[in-house]
Design goal:
CATH superfamily of the largest domain: Periplasmic binding protein-like II
Helix content: 25-40%
Oligomer: single chain
CATH architecture of the largest domain: 3-Layer(aba) Sandwich
CATH topology of the largest domain: D-Maltodextrin-Binding Protein, domain 2
Order of helices and strands: HEHEHEHEEHHEHHEHEHEEEHEHH
Number of domains: 2
Number of strands: 12
CATH class of the largest domain: Alpha Beta
Strand content: 15-25%
Number of helices: 13
Length: about 350
Amino acid sequence: MKKGMKMTSIAILISLALLFAGCAGGGEGERITITGAGATFPYPLIAKWADEYDKITGGKVSINYQSIGSGGGIRQITAKTVDFGASDAPMKPEEFEKAKGILHIPETIGAVVIAYNLPIEGRLKLSGEVLADIYLGKITRWNDRRIAELNPDIELPDKEIIVVKRADGSGTTFIFTDYLSSVSKEWEEKVGRGKVFSFPEAIGNRGVQAKGNEGVTAVIKQNPYSIGYIELAYAIQNDVSFALLKNKAGNFVDANVGTVAAAAASAAGKLPRGDESWYGVSIVNADGENAYPIASFSYILVYKDLDYMPEQKAKALVEFLKWMVTDGQKYAEALHYVPLPEEVMERNLETISMIKW
């Protein structure tokens, strides 16, 4: 960490100490609860932050986060029924306009993997074009010629493909459909990017839907010959197999901290201000020999003006956000997320400094 960031961390610790002293002055056992809701994609990391922050504050500040999907997070922060929202998809222009004064704060970088349940020896390989055609209903069986050509050393079963997707408004779905739109013209024209999409008629009764990354993971584990998209941490924690994907450079790459960081590297210096629209920011199908192709920032959404909440809570929220994007990043890698690059940390601190109460 650079000297400037070290000094920032020290300043944050001093601010936290002063804040906790103020909380303690309100009476023994008094605590501030900060509420959030939204994306399931970063939930394992947010849960870890909540646990560690409770320890750091001596129980004076608790984080209560509900993993309900990005669409729900955007709706709740727009209505101000939570203190912060979380979304893996930047707000669409109409959503951004409706939530006047909203800020986008990248909290981490993660990967969406293509999970599968197959009785095979070896690791499945897929390309974006083949994956798009599976979800368009054009490839219906696991031993289809196009899948077999990518996997000459694997004996693929002559079984129908069970296709799984999210049932709720999902940032993970947005990342997935953003990727498919970038590699398949037909997908882009017929389905496009979004937090929801409908199965085409060709999928028929082979299509299954589930809520949350948790739900999709469970469906894949319970259904042989299924395929679906989930966040990397869910695949690893639940021992679910996932494919090597062909990237823009033509290489089959695994999803890990290094390959996701490679995908994010080119975007760090080109990001908008925190109070500007982030719609269109994308790191899917990125350049780079080792770049994993389905990677994304995940965002915290918070209002610039916090005068609608008590002053002590507003201060506590701001201090938590500062800790989250600096010292809190040290918990990311162990949970298979990529710590924010230095440039993104600095942009986030500039954004947080805009918050008033």
